[in-house]
Amino acid sequence: MIDKIRPDLLPLLIGRCGQNICLDNYARLCRLDPQGQERFSLTAASAEELEQSVLGCRVRAAGLRPTRQRVALAELLFAAGNRHVSAEELHEEALRAGVRVSLATVYNTLHQFTEAGMLRILPVEGSKTYFDTNTSDHHHFFLEGENRLVDIPEGPVTVSNLPTPPEDMEIAHVDILVRLRPKARNRR
Question: Would you say 140 and 177 are in contact if contact means Cβ atoms under 8 Å apart?
């Protein structure tokens, strides 16, 4: 049934990404009811097939070729909604899901998705980089000890007295990362 498809994929299904594959899937998976109205008729298999096609459409709309590995990684990245993930974590997920892909391919794909505007890069530690599927302007808490990022709820975060950039440059974005740790129980 239609509820097996994530709601954020439905706009792509009806062709907003401008690719024929989405329109073709829409036509193939719709039928007319006795009153002449379009109705979706999806089985679990066709829902999974459709989601992969829509993700392929999203990859193509971002200007990238929807290879099997890119679409499989996109499915892992975007299937759970907004999230923060490192290349190593995504590589482990891919292997558990049966996606044969090297860590280098995961890194390359994440950077391609970032350059295409599908992800936002979040350097947290010197050697640790996270990728955020939520590309809107927002800030993060970093939970030390758990090595986990959490979005700061929308609200008044103010940055003042920013330095003036050099004459030929402009500020593109300000990332705020607030590091958190559990309170010490017996601090005196």
Answer: yes
